[in-house]
Design goal:
Its EC number is 2.1.1.-. This is 25S rRNA adenine-N(1) methyltransferase. One of its GO terms (cellular component) is nucleolus. It is found in: Nucleus, Nucleolus. By secondary structure, the protein is an alpha/beta fold. It folds into two domains: 13-82, no CATH class; 90-253, Vaccinia Virus protein VP39 (Rossmann fold). It has eight helices and seven strands; from the N terminus they run αααααββββαβααββ. A seven-stranded mixed beta sheet has the order 3-2-1-4-5-7-6, with helices on both faces. Helix 2 crosses helix 4. The longest helix has 24 residues, at 30-53. The relative contact order is 0.12.
């Protein structure tokens, strides 16, 4: 009898990202910023597909295109501009608005609320400036002191509760992961980094920000499917809001982890829809 095909383990984010490129950047308009970010995502998606297919020539060709566009550094410059105060894009302001009632009940003279910001671009965003928060910032390509250069998928698992967090921020991070299985693994990994020792007033939380198109215009993901995926991981949706481009969500961790398998299934057919998906595999 032929052995069953085992699902491939998702590659680390650092494995699927091309090398960074040092370059100087002129000021970018809002339109140019959006175009650069969109183009970078499309190239990364194509690169991940070529990598999975073992097409090294195609990978090299895409790397050359990414290099010509300024690489990861250009993408991060565009992302910073998109999140600048001038363009009203600091998503952590929404996060603070949502958790401020809980922070008012938190005794910061004893301890601060521990926050892990994955994909951090700045040490001066709203959550970083709040004295009640102790923010640990990580990113694959640190842009400034105070941001640890680290792949979240390689971060050592906590050895004790003091290394866990009350809140994890994934703001425009999950959509950067180039494959659906990797996105599911990232969400599963978040659970392992959340503390189980929080006051009732401040239960562990996950802050998630995604482009609206990932949910509203995907063939394989709907808002209900996202709710089902996170519910089986032990999360309850506490807050949600939309803008014309983004969806913001705050999920409370209930501890009721009951993993289910979610495959890539056609949920919303249409020629003009995208292929964004999240796959959950068994442990």
């Amino acid at each position: 009898m032929a052995p069953k095909n085992r699902p491939k383990r998702p590659q680390l984010m650092s494995r699927t990202r091309p090398p960074t490129v040092k370059s100087k950047h002129a000021a970018l308009s809002s339109k140019a910023t959006r175009h650069l970010i969109r183009s970078h995502h499309q190239l990364l998606k194509a690169r991940a597909q070529a990598l999975q297919a073992g097409d090294e020539a195609r990978v090299s060709s895409i790397d050359a295109q990414i290099h010509a566009n300024g690489g990861l550094e250009s993408y991060q410059v565009a992302s910073k501009l998109g999140q600048s105060l001038e363009r009203g894009g600091d998503s952590s302001k929404t996060l603070l608005d949502w958790i401020r009632p809980q922070l008012s009940q938190w005794d910061t003279t004893i301890s601060k609320l521990r926050v892990l910001e994955v994909g951090a671009l700045s040490t001066k965003n709203a959550c970083s400036m709040d004295p009640a928060l102790d923010v640990t910032r990580i990113d694959l390509n640190s842009q400034e002191p105070g941001i640890l250069k680290q792949d979240f998928m390689e971060r050592p698992l906590p050895s004790g509760d003091e290394e866990r967090f009350h809140l994890i921020s994934l703001s425009l991070v999950l959509n950067y992961v180039p494959d659906a299985t990797g996105r599911g693994e990232m969400l599963k990994r978040c659970v392992k980094f959340l503390t189980s020792n929080s006051p009732v007033s401040c239960v562990p939380r996950l802050f998630l920000v995604l482009p609206v198109a990932c949910i509203d215009n995907s063939r394989y993901l709907t808002e209900q499917r996202l709710l089902d995926i996170l519910a089986c991981l032990g999360f309850h949706l506490a807050q949600s809001k939309r803008t014309s481009k983004l969806i913001f969500q705050l999920w409370e961790y209930t501890g009721e982890y009951s993993l289910r398998v979610f495959k890539k299934e056609m949920l919303n057919p249409g020629k003009k829809r995208n292929n964004f998906a999240i796959i959950l595999q068994g442990d």
